Write the structure tokens for this entry.
Amino acid sequence: MAKDYRSTVFLPTTEFPMKAGLPAREPEILRRWEEIGLYEKLRADSKGREQFILHDGPPYANGQIHIGHALNKILKDVSNRSKQMMGYDANFVPGWDCHGLPIEWKIEERYRAAGKSKDDLPVAEFRNECRQFAQHWIDVQREEFKRLGVIGDWANPYLTMAFAAEAQIAGELHKFLMNGGLYKGSKPVLWSTVERTALAEAEVEYQEHTSHALFVKFPVVKPSVPLLDGATILIWTTTAWTLPANRALALSQREEYCRLRVEAIGENSLARVGEEIVVASVLAESVARSCGIEAFSTLGTVKGADVLGTICAHPLRGKGYDYDVPVLHADFVDMETGSGFVHTAPGHGADDYILLTAHGFDVPQTIDEDGRYFSHIPIFGGDNPARIFDDNGKEADANLRVIEVMTEAGALLGRSRLRHQYPHSWRSKAPLIFRNTPQWFISMASNALREKALAAIDATSFYPPRGRNRLRAMIEQRPDWVVSRQRAWGVPIAIFEHRETGELLRDDSVNQRILTAFREKGADAWFTAAPDDFLGDAYNKADWTMVTDILDVWFDSGSSHAFVLEQRPDLKWPASLYLEGSDQHRGWFHSSLLESAGTRGTAPYEAVLTHGFTLDEKGRKMSKSLGNTIEPQEVIKQTGADILRLWVVSSDYSEDLTVGKTVIQSQSDAYRRLRNTLRYLLGNLAGFTEAEKLPYDQMPELERWILHRLAELGRIVTESCERYDFHRLYVALHNFCAIELSSFYFDIRKDALYCDAPESLRRRATRTVLDHLFGCLVKWLAPVICFTAEEAWLTRFPSSDGSVHRQQFPAIPEEWLDLELAAKWEKIRRIRRAVTAGLERERVEKRIGSSLQAHPTVHAAADDLAVLETIDFAEICITSAVTLQPGDSPSDAFRIEDVPNVAVTTRLADGSKCERCWKIAPEVGQLAGSEELCQRCAGAIVCVAA
């Protein structure tokens, strides 16, 4: 009976378990970080280092975090942790956006459910309820972000509703007041009739919407050319409710227009045989189809430039709309759809407003804040004014009443329904309108704000680079910044306006009194104090009005650089990096740039990184209505936060990221490969000491090749972290662990680790390399799988207050990089692929079991074999012997396509099996006293016994 040699084999031993148990283990690590004060220790460790400051774009405090929040905060944490371990002081101060409509809307819903109105309460009381609501969700989200492993100054976050922050926000607005950039104007802005406030472009999303599409006739009353006399000009619109606000028609002076006579019509057509209309020539056929005109004749054509100056009548002339409607040129007129003429209502469109004010038109007030016509509007106003949308955002009666009146007047040529993209509030999800209303604006022209912002963009680094062009295009084209909202919860536009002249009060002493009150009592002071408290003795309160509009929340967060980066001594201005989703080109990146450029002349950031959005595994946007959302809390509960963190870095987050059960499962599989690598290293480093280490020049070639790969990986890690290209870092580390280590190096060196004598140079070299591998991998992986890396580090280096996150990335010796050695081992590994494939065929054919039973012969060119002769190729192939045979190979030899000119034949190895290492060797059975062992194992046992 063979002796049991298991006790003489140096098998791995470690307390680092194969099963991670992350949902239970991660909270324990979080508690330890709290107990040892890891955040504070990192600040102390890095005191005096160069700062890397990632300024947190504040999430909104109105609900639990979703998968998009998780993506964003994990990316920030990986960035910060990697910079910290690269030798920076990477302090992170998280923040929250606390003001604004969504919170106010939630509180209003409570009142509506109780049959009350917020208007029944003092504004300060209502604002306090909003504050408490925001604080509750800040506390909830704080714990959820910490559970993701995000490290930062969670005890001292920044809040836009903090008194000092509210004072600074008001102070930033005062800078625009004092430099003349702030003004009051009446312009069409995107307006929510449901929420009764203006919205910024960043608060708008485009959704499918069905509109009424109308072809409307405007009779020509003063033609510019005879061809137009007696005709009607045809316009096309999808906003019937704007027709009472029409003041002009627009065309393209470069296009050709024609006068058509209707010859035949189809059933239900609104056209009449014999009537004559003017449209763009290229659109005549499509107009006819849309209006049920089966035949028409062309009476003549005219250049658009010659139509300019024509005067039309409003379709409802004689019914209160008795003004002239001139025809003007506009660059925004295209020939894609419609008739080639555009009806323009200066109170309900940005292009319309610019065109008509440039021609000296007044802008009429047509629609009130509820979306109803003002009482002075003929037909549609009065005591029962028509309304565009109801309180739920559904279509009310305005469009239908306009269509009915236009039909009765014989003004319609065609009517249909159009499904198209239409602006909606991203909060209430209700459709929006353009509405002319008095608002507060920051001028893009005053103080050269546009030029300063564009110059700041050019001085900023963008990741990915295309972000620069996107933000630049927005700044180049954007109108003046609407900074006012007609709500209650937020920082007020704390300024005074003269009751008679509209002049703005610009007085530093008044401003300082306002800011002092805000710092002491918060922005509520504006609603509870008397005007005299701010005006002092220099002004008569009867002459001045306190503005009560609220600042756009994008101005709040856009000012955060001023009350966070500039005010905290542990941070710096400008920030090293702003990192948010790609929608923030029109949101936080945008508002922060304008606020800072307008007050400081440059951007508050040195670099901008954008990531994509989260999609389900079918590529659809996540939506609760579709039931395709993935909640980060559930993923953490089932698999742990490190799996989510791995998903983030394994994805190309410069594009949209897919996530779902299959994706999470694949990340769990990838995680196991990384964890098993760390476990293998820990298990085989048991008992390793500094005395066992071998210097580089005593290492076998295989070990030096692994060190070369570590040197290459070190460069990739550094470059990836510098460029925030964590996807590249992940791919490099994962493939190294899975392919070069697990499937190659570990597989080969198991025999030396388990069976060589403890003092053998080969085993010492292997363990030395494992020590280097562990030191590199656990640190390189620490920013990504922060919990697992900490667990592995403490398993090997238990400490009362130690942490892998207090380490820095290893400095790789230059001598490890050996390109000549790498080229040689690339050839060795290529030939080895042919051998291992041949052995696999032998196993499938059941001619061998273990590869150690085999003795392959490698047939190859002399120069290839010369390389193999310099190493123990049998050891590399994990066989008991190998023969290198130059020249022609047998016709039945095994070959694989991707390794040409190499063939393999295999026979059984000569000798007997060693009962300790399982190699086949001729000397087994020949050694006195150790008949069951090979010579190597017999010597190893003697060393162990000694």
User: Anything to note?
Assistant: The chain has a mean pLDDT of 94. Residues 726-755 form the longest helix (30 residues). The chain has 29 helices and 31 strands.
